[in-house]
Design brief:
It is a single chain. This protein is mainly alpha-helical. The protein has one domain. The chain has six helices and no strands. The protein has helices spanning 3-7, 17-29, 35-41, 45-51, 54-70, 79-93. The chain is globular and about 35 Å long.
Amino acid sequence: MNAVTRKFPFDYSGLPEHIRDGAQLYIEHGIPPGSFLKAVICNDLSEACGRADDINRYRLYDIVSWFYNKAPKSAWGSEAAYERWIADRQLERT
């Protein structure tokens, strides 16, 4: 168990089932998610809309709300935050 999961027990059930693994791998291990989830994490609404499948398009509000309310604030919000989060988790893994 890494420092993030010890500090922040996460409930991913508020996310669509098919993106939960990607969100969990990103938050807990810094493993880059797919292009839609990356766009959400980077706070790029137009890119997220363009990459969303039918479920994610319908649930976009819920997904953004989950990150806003549940994810660590330093894990999302800009591309710089995304890159830092991945780099920091990579350091933890090594």
